[in-house]
Amino acid sequence: MPASGPVSRIARLAAAMVAAIVITTSLALAGPGHDHGPAPAGATAPASPRVTASSDAFELVGIVEGEVLVVYLDRFTTNEPVAGATITISLNGTALKAEPQPNGTYELASPILKAPGLVEVIAEVEAGGTSDLLVGALTIPTPAATGTAAGGEGRLARIRQELASLRPTLLLAGGPLLLGLLVGIGLRSRPRIAMGLAALAILVMATSLSLAHEGHDHGGGAAATQGNAPHRRADGTIFLPKPTQRLLEVRTEIVQPREAVRTVRFAGRVIPDPNRSGLVQATIGGRIATAGGGLPRLGQTVKAGEVLAYVQPSFQPVDAATLQQTEGDLDQQIALYRSRLDRQRVLAERNAVPRQSLEETEIQLRGLERRRAELRQSKVVPEPLVAPADGVIAEVRVANGQVVSPSDVLFQIIDPASLWVEALVFDQVNAAEIRAATARLPDGRVVALSLIGRSRSLQQQSTLLQFAIVDAPASLDVGTPLSVIAETGQTARGIVLPRASVTQAPNGQSVVFQHREAELFVPRPVRMEALDAERVLVTGGIEPGERVVVRGAPLVNQVR
């Protein structure tokens, strides 16, 4: 038959195209990252069923664990756990008492918690003379909804879902294929054109299948839910379950605006009280010698007038020659006065000279002898180094046998209980307006300061202020840098929060965390200024009446 050749070629062409469809579809279905098998063992399970309820006094969170409802009861305002409460919980009308546990929670068991469906929860709470009624709802999911059904039923559902998702792809790919077949049949006399159209149809089908399959998702998985673990959601809010809140000791406060005194911050350093401290220096040059018990050690307690060490005099060759010359001159003058005194005594016995002249010569001779004795004594008598005040040794700059000069500071003595702060204030504030002040130490401790005085002359275009530290810590060292926050007398209105409640977001903004729901925290960017070393004044970003985290905020900020 004449048409057998073209018809056979068309049949072979159609068979090849069908085979290409099957292969391309299989490759697309088995694309990279595609998996129809059971969920991996490490996938995170969905969150446990939970119920939340709150009132002006209490906040309750119940978490289902099997047939047990674990109840967390906290103060609504502060988020503090409530201990010793009496809790009666009604599940769909069945009243049960929640028993207190050693870890601060309450538990009750009921088979109702295993039956799928909606459970009405009514909790009667009595604690510390306060009674309240909390109402909530609990949804117990079916086993399939929890993702535990990994058998045939789950696989069948996934297959149906896959076929439904591929339906548009098959329609899109089948259109060019059908067009190619029709054109090929219509052009029997020109098989090359038909083959070209068929190849083009296969290419379009493969491309459409690949694009339709790219990024295909069956839903669920670890990205859809983090279960009971703390995590930061895509919108920036933080899910922090009650067990974690208890562990981190998160505390909150309902904020309200109020008046506060503005402050200014500047740098300072610790100095000793000049009235109860002092420096030890030598008045002569010489070599250090111990006072018998060894040199004083750092931190040693001393009394005023106590001898710390001695300085053995030493002289340069020039000074030694000068001393010898001076001593020679004194010896010569002493010899002359003695000779004169002897002659005057003989003449005085004969009444040849007045008695007054004899006495004057004796006085001059005794003065010269004293000067020579002191000069000789200065060569050998050491100078004692005594403590100028009661206190402890803060600095020791000598060693046994060391040669020192009169300008060297050898010891420093301070009273650790009496320390001052010295600070330089530039033009950011009028120093005369400063009233009270506090200081934050490098280790985070805060000390109160009392203004002593200020300089009336500028030093490097700044005013020098001196404060006395009230109840100075025993471990505080002289020279420690610190940050001084002083009140200026000006007032401002805003929300006062502890400094620890403000953290830094990844973008560098200052944020606080609003406790919006029982287990939900929302970061809120704020505008603030320092009040003192422990408090800040928030002037924008949060509204009055909101619950804000005042303790544990840096730990909440670490959740990712």
Describe this structure in words.
This protein has seven helices and 31 strands. By secondary structure, the protein is of the alpha+beta class. The strands form six sheets. It has an eight-stranded antiparallel beta sheet, with no helix packed on it. Strands 12-21-24-23-22-25 form a six-stranded antiparallel beta barrel. A five-stranded antiparallel beta sheet has the order 9-10-28-27-26. Strand 23 and strand 24 form a beta hairpin. Helix 1 (4-29) packs parallel to helix 3 (191-213) and helix 2 runs antiparallel to helix 3 (191-213). Mean pLDDT is 78; it is low at 22-44, 147-154 and 209-225.
Tally the beta strands.
Answer: 31
Largest sheet: 8 strands, antiparallel
Strand content: 35-45%
Shape: rod-shaped
Short account of what is shown:
By secondary structure, the chain is an alpha+beta fold. It has helices spanning 4-29, 152-186, 191-213, 242-248, 317-349, 355-378, 553-557, and strands spanning 50-54, 58-65, 68-75, 86-91, 94-100, 106-109, 117-127, 130-140, 231-232, 238-239, 251-254, 257-272, 278-281, 286-290, 301-302, 307-313, 383-386, 391-396, 403-404, 409-414, 419-425, 437-440, 446-454, 463-470, 481-498, 503-504, 510-517, 520-525, 527-530, 535-540, 547-551.
